[in-house]
Write a structure and sequence with these properties.
By secondary structure, the chain is an alpha+beta fold. It has one domain. The chain is built from two helices and seven strands; from the N terminus they run E-E-E-H-E-E-E-H-E. A hairpin with a 5-residue loop joins strand 4 and strand 5. The longest helix has 9 residues. The protein is globular. The termini are far apart.
Length: 102
């Protein structure tokens, strides 16, 4: 007997465009930098650690798949890049993306 799974909802194509980066700040915080605009905000490193461990942090949210962190409901960063940035502090950066559904 065959086993078939049919999607209940159609999925639109999703595209991620790089719009900036996360950079380790001098005071132990992570700077959110938007290309052409500079630093738009800073987020405590501890907030990222909380989200990476499945806990709640203001304006940060882990995606359903667990491989992306959403900042302020608008920007996206990859979890493995954030982990690498925290692990190799202050040498590494992480790319900042915006999600475009189309």
């Amino acid at each position: 007997m065959k086993f078939v799974i049919v999607s209940e909802r159609p999925r639109p194509s999703v595209r991620y465009e790089k719009v900036g980066r996360l950079r380790p700040g001098e005071t132990g915080e992570i700077e959110v930098i938007l290309d052409g605009h500079g630093v738009i905000r800073t987020i405590p490193t501890g907030d990222f650690v909380l989200v990476l461990n499945g806990l709640f942090a203001l304006d940060l949210e882990l995606s359903e798949s667990g491989n992306r962190i959403v900042i302020s409901g608008k920007y996206t960063v990859l979890v493995n890049q954030v982990r690498g940035m925290i692990r190799d502090w202050p040498r590494k950066k992480a790319a900042l993306f915006i999600r475009e559904v189309g």
